[in-house]
UniProtKB/TrEMBL annotation:
<feature type="domain" description="ANTAR">
    <location>
        <begin position="159"/>
        <end position="220"/>
    </location>
</feature>
<dbReference type="InterPro" id="IPR005561">
    <property type="entry name" value="ANTAR"/>
</dbReference>
<dbReference type="InterPro" id="IPR036388">
    <property type="entry name" value="WH-like_DNA-bd_sf"/>
</dbReference>
<dbReference type="GO" id="GO:0003723">
    <property type="term" value="F:RNA binding"/>
</dbReference>
<dbReference type="InterPro" id="IPR029016">
    <property type="entry name" value="GAF-like_dom_sf"/>
</dbReference>
<keyword id="KW-0804">Transcription</keyword>
<protein>
    <submittedName>
        <fullName>ANTAR domain-containing protein</fullName>
    </submittedName>
</protein>
<keyword id="KW-0805">Transcription regulation</keyword>
<dbReference type="Pfam" id="PF03861">
    <property type="entry name" value="ANTAR"/>
</dbReference>
């Protein structure tokens, strides 16, 4: 499966995801960072479906990625289409429109520190065997260290940028800078917390059949202004 070009994502970052495809029987991978020197953002995706799975969960605020972050444990769904998922029913319904048969999500943690998440998908149902599960844990640990090192270097550079790489521009399909900017604007408009501001963006996007990124663009461009009556 082809990876995105270096013009769309950084080559170094894309390699973080590629390692999982090389070592494991999966079809796609995405890595996101949580906390640290940057807001929550996707770092790399091996293909557009992997990126879309991450985007859907971010937009909906539900899915195995959030469960893995909350529990700090792997969430393994070898037959994700065949089982009910009461904790993320909307995302599960959305999966029915894809070729995904199995999902394996691993939190990227170092001690008490939450660094990020890696999401793997397969178009063939089945559990990871003991060897592959062990490989995934080792790769997740290595990825956590690599991401932490990158975050620290970004922080030490003291550039004031919120991106992970120089390619994370406003035009990059992986950038969520505009979403974070819109969250700040909604925070002021509605006098709510950052968490509630993001929830308002998600709710508006879901109710209008759009992505959070699209709604954020409208907010930043001042085509949409939130008020107590907006939602």
């Amino acid at each position: 499966m082809a990876e995105w070009t270096s013009a769309e994502v950084g080559v170094e970052d894309t390699a973080l995801c590629a390692h999982f495809l090389e070592a494991l029987p999966v079809n796609g991978a995405a890595v996101s960072v949580f906390g640290g020197a940057v807001p929550e953002t996707i770092v790399c995706a091996t293909d557009r479906l992997a990126a879309r799975l991450d985007e859907l969960q971010f937009d909906l605020g539900e899915g195995p990625r959030w469960e893995a972050v909350r529990t700090r444990l792997p969430v393994l769904e070898p037959r994700v289409r065949e089982v009910e998922h009461p904790s993320w029913p909307v995302f599960h319904t959305a999966l029915m429109d894809t070729t995904v048969e199995a999902l394996y999500v691993f939190p990227l943690t170092l001690g008490a520190l939450n660094v990020g998440i890696v999401e793997l998908y397969s178009t063939t149902p089945g559990a990871l065997d003991r060897t592959d599960h062990a490989k995934a844990l080792v790769l997740a640990n290595e990825t956590a260290w690599n991401l932490l090192d990158h975050l620290l270097r970004v922080q030490e550079a003291a550039t004031g940028e919120t991106s992970l790489t120089s390619t994370d521009s406003a035009e990059s399909p992986l950038s969520r800078r505009e979403i974070h900017q819109a969250t700040g604007m909604v925070l002021v408009q509605m006098n709510v917390t950052p968490t509630d501001a993001l929830l308002l963006l998600r709710a508006h996007a879901f109710s209008h059949g759009k992505t959070v990124r699209a709604i954020a663009g409208d907010v930043v461009a001042r085509r949409l202004q939130f008020s107590p009556e907006t939602n």
